[in-house]
Amino acid sequence: MENGHGDAIREEEEEWKFGPSEDLLFASRISIRGVLDQVMENIVDSRRPPVPLGHGDPSVFPCFRTASDAVDAVVSAVRSADFNCYSPNVGLLSARRAVADYLSRDLPYELTTDDVYLTNGCSQSIEHVLAVLARPGTNILLPRPGYPFYEARAAFSRLEARHFDLLPNNGWEIDLDAVEALADANTVAMVLINPGNPCGNVFRKQHLAKVAETARKLGILVIADEVYDHLAFGETPFVPMGVFGSIVPVITVGSISKRWVVPGWRLGWIVTSDPNGILKKTKIVEGIKGILNITTDPTTFTQGAVPDIIKNTKEDFFRKTIDLLRETADVELKLSLLNGIEDDVDFCCKLAREESVIILPGSAVGLKNWLRITFAVGPSSLEDGLGRLKSFCERHSKAE
C-alpha cells in the first residue's frame, strides 16, 4: 500500500508511545461539565433553543448584570495602566487587604494580608488546596451530595476521596458520626460547603461548632467552601466557618464570582483562619505559597479593582440579586410514576432529546435518582424550561 508519494505504509496499526493521562480522563468524566456534556449530546432539535437549567450561570442574563460600581472599578483599573504587570505570586497587597477586611466583618478576630492568597477563581483555590494536601496514601472526606469538582480534583491529585452523607430530613446537616467512622490516621481534611451546593442549605452556627469539635478530635483541618457566602435564603443566617478557627484550623475558599455575578472575572482566594498558627507549624502555609510559585495568577487589573469593587458596591445590588436568584432546587425522582425511565441519568438524557431542556442528574452530585434544577436563569427562560419539563413528565406519566 502506498500513500501517494510512493512510500509504503504498514497496514498494521502504528504503536505510539504516548496517550492521555487516565487520571485526567476519569476526573473529567465525573465533573459537572463532563456529565452535562453527556446530557447535551442528546439534543437533536436545532429549532428549539436549549434551556439551561443544569449549570447555573446567571451572568449571561441581563437581569443578573453586575453592579455598575464594580464595572467602573475594573474600567478604572485598566485605564490607569498601573496593573499591566505581573502581580506577586500571593496577589497584590491592596487586593489582599481588601479581601481580609471584607471577610473580617463576620469574624471575631481580624484577618491580615498574610492570611489571604489570591487565585484564578475559586476553582483554582480548590485545586491548590487539594494539591498541597495530596501526599501519598492520604485521604479527604467529602460531602454527599456535594460539588463534584472536589472528587475530580482529588482523583487527578491521587488523593483518596471518602464520602459522608448530608441528612435531607435534618436540614442537610452533616452526619458527624459518619465522619468519625470514615476518618483514619491518613485522613487530612474534611470539606464543608456553606451555603450548600447543590442543596442550597445554610448550616446553623451550633452545627458548625460541632463540626469544628469533631475535626479537632480527629486532628484534621476544615476546608470551608464559602463561594456562596451571604447568598442565603430562609431564616438561618450565614456564619463563616472561620468563626471557629481557634478550635480547628480552617482554610476558606471563595471568590467574587457569585455575590457579584461575575464568574468570568476569575478572582478567588484561599484564606487561612488559624489564630493558633497550626497551618504554619505543619507547613501547609509553605505549601500554599509553593504552589502559587508554579501556577498562573489572576489578572492583575482585576486584582487592582478589588478594593473599589468591595468598597463601592451598594447593598441595594446585593438585595436585588437575592430577590432574583434562586440557587437550585433538588427534586426527588419517583420512578414508579414514570414510564420508560430507568434512572436520573436516563431522565435527563431523554428530556434533552425530547424537549431540549438541560438539567443535572443527581448522580453527578452523589444523589442518585434526584434531579438538580437551577433557577439562576432569566424569568422567560425559566418559564419556558419548566413548561417543557411539565410536558415531558405528563407524556411519560403512568397515569396517562
Automatic annotation (TrEMBL):
Ranges where the Aminotransferase class I/classII large domain occurs: 51-380
Protein name as annotated: Nicotianamine aminotransferase A
Annotated positions of the N6-(pyridoxal phosphate)lysine modification: K258
Lineage of the species this protein comes from: Eukaryota, Viridiplantae, Streptophyta, Embryophyta, Tracheophyta
Record GO terms (molecular function): L-tyrosine-2-oxoglutarate transaminase activity; pyridoxal phosphate binding
Organism per entry: Acorus gramineus (Dwarf sweet flag)
Any one of the GO BP annotations: L-tyrosine catabolic process
Residues annotated as signal peptide: none
Keyword terms of this UniProt record: Aminotransferase, Pyridoxal phosphate, Transferase
UniProt record similarity statement: Belongs to the class-I pyridoxal-phosphate-dependent aminotransferase family.
NCBIfam families (UniProt xref): tyr_nico_aTase (TIGR01265)
UniProt cofactor(s): pyridoxal 5'-phosphate
Superkingdom per UniProt: Eukaryota
